[in-house]
Every structure is written in structure tokens, then in C-alpha cells.
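Subject: design request, 156 residues
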């Protein structure tokens, strides 16, 4: 089983990029994990927000195998405490299917992506930039793995 975080556009802040890489490297100790970037659209400034979502949505769907479980990081998704998120990750691991979490572009997801999704997760009631959410997610995934392995990273 492989777990992927698929994001639209490269991380532009070098500090965020460093921290994302750090947690991504740590994660590989526990599971097969890939951080994959879909290149930003060219001439996005000439597109409406809806056109941008549609084109990004097609690129997202082109990067997802039909047997892969697709989970969106979306403000309307289900929130979980870190311990509950760890249990959720364990359920996904037990299922054996590849899992792909997706962070969309700045305007969210197209309807086609929502239609294909198997679920949605929200990390907070607050809104974060699509750049920042990458770091928050990989840290929470790392935290989940340490919880599942009984390691002392998480304190409750």
C-alpha cells in the first residue's frame, strides 16, 4: 500500500519546503509515502477561477489511478483529533488500497474531483493557504504514525 500527498503547484516558500521535506523523509520510516506535485497551470492569470479549477481538476484526476482511494483536504471535510486521525490512517492501511490525499489549488476543487472523491478531511475550522496546509498535513500524518507505533512524539 502506498500513501501519496498530491498538491497543485510547487511550494514557493523555502522554509515551508524544508519542513515539508523533513516530515516527508521521516514518514518513509513508517510507510511508502510520496509527495507529488502537479505543475501549476500556464497562463492561469488569463483564466477565470472556475476555469482554473476545471483544468487543475483534470490534472488531478489524470494523476489518480481508478483503484486508488481519493481523499480531499477540504474545509468542508470531517475534522478529527490527532488520535482519531491516527485510527483513521490505520483503517486505511488495513484496507490495503493505495490512498491519495489531495491539496487543491488556491480556488479549491472542480465538481469532477468532488464527484470522484471517496471522502474529505478538514484540518481546522480556520482557512489556511494551499501552501501552508501541505506542512500541516504531513506533520499530522507523521504524528499519526508515531501514535500508531507508540512513540513519544504526541502528548495527550
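Subject: RE: design request

Done. Sequence follows.
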Amino acid at each position: 500500500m502506498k500513501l501519496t500527498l498530491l498538491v497543485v503547484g510547487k511550494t514557493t516558500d523555502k522554509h515551508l519546503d524544508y519542513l515539508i521535506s523533513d516530515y516527508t523523509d521521516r514518514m518513509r520510516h513508517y510507510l511508502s509515502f510520496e509527495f507529488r506535485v502537479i505543475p501549476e497551470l500556464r497562463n492561469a492569470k488569463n483564466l477565470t477561477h472556475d476555469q482554473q479549477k476545471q483544468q487543475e481538476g483534470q490534472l488531478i484526476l489524470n494523476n489518480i489511478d481508478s483503484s486508488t482511494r481519493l481523499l480531499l483536504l477540504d474545509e468542508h471535510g470531517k475534522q478529527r483529533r490527532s488520535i482519531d486521525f491516527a485510527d483513521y490512517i490505520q483503517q486505511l492501511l488495513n484496507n490495503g488500497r493505495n490512498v491519495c490525499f489531495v491539496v487543491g489549488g488556491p480556488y479549491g476543487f472542480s465538481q469532477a474531483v468532488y464527484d470522484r472523491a471517496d471522502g474529505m478531511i478538514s484540518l481546522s475550522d480556520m482557512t489556511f493557504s494551499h501552501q501552508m496546509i501541505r506542512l500541516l498535513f504531513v506533520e499530522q500524518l507523521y504524528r499519526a504514525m508515531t501514535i500508531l507505533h507508540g512513540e513519544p512524539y504526541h502528548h495527550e
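Residues 2-148 form a domain with the Alpha/beta knot fold (CATH 3.40.1280.10).
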